Structures are given as C-alpha cells and as structure tokens.
Amino acid sequence: MAAPLAAMLAMAFVLLPGPARAQAALPSLRLETGAGQPLDLAGFRGKVLLVDIWASWCAPCLPGLRDIERLAERFRSPGFAVVPISVDRGGPVAAVRGYARAGVSGLPLYVAAPNAATAALGMRALPTTILFDARGREYARFDGPSASREADIARALATLMKSSSKQRKPR
C-alpha cells in the first residue's frame, strides 16, 4: 500500500532543480505580458501581491489556476494584485493554451523565462504561490498542490490584507 501512495505523491507536483532559498524581498524578474509588453515584477511593489508560478504542461497547475482566479475575485481591491506567471518555454502562445485548458478567463497573463523565475523566486515546485506584502516582503509560500491549497492561501491572504489595511490607516 505504501508504494502506490508514494507513487501518487511523487506525481502530485513537479520538483524543480536548484536550491530552495527563502526570498525576503520582491525580486526583479523580467516578465512579458500576453500582449508582448515587457514588465518587471518589482514594479508591483506597493500592493499586496499574489504571485502564482505555473506551466501549461504541469497537470496540478491548471486546476490551481481556477483557485487563483477565485481568490483574485474574492480579494479584489485597489491595493491587491494577482500575477500569474507562466514558465512555459513556448511563451505566451503556450500560456494562452494553458488558460484555455484550465477554463480561466479572468486573470492577467504574464510569462517569464523558466530559469530566471526559478532563480529569482527560489522555486522548488510547480505550482508555487507566493504572497508579498505591500513593502515587497515575502509573507507566505505554498509549494506544490494540496487539497486545502485554496483555503490555505485564502486564510493567509485575509490575514495579510487585514494587516496591510491597518498599516495604511492614519493614526
């Protein structure tokens, strides 16, 4: 019984090569929008940020995109941004196909070079979701899929949004 369970768990998420490292600050990472415009991840500083790194070939990533879309809608506010980053080697074309296969239409589209994203964000698995506070500090990280992933991210995001709104209120 242990062998089949271990095999299923091994297929549950994709491990990426490279060292795991804690990311203290929002890094500079060159992104490309779905329209081909260059953008830097560090340009989102000043907002609470949900960064989701995914790929169209990653089976657990596609249902995860639907989770991210629901979270984007639930927490929508001027001080919050969702940045789903595709690390597909096929660029925006592959990412658009991934969105279509996932049934996602309400998220922005960003693409980054896989090696650059792995290095900048210290990724160890796909999907990886990272929450950053408005100062650009990493608040929480969710590596790989889990049955409670959306709920776990929602709890952390609610706490982060609440603390961020308190910091913005004049005293």
TrEMBL record:
It is found in: Cell envelope. It comes from the Bacteria. Gene3D superfamilies: Glutaredoxin. Keywords: Cytochrome c-type biogenesis, Redox-active center, Signal. Residues 1-22 form the signal peptide. The keyword Cytoplasm does not apply. The lineage of its organism: Bacteria, Pseudomonadati, Pseudomonadota, Alphaproteobacteria, Sphingomonadales. The keyword Cell cycle does not apply. Pfam families: Redoxin. This is TlpA family protein disulfide reductase.
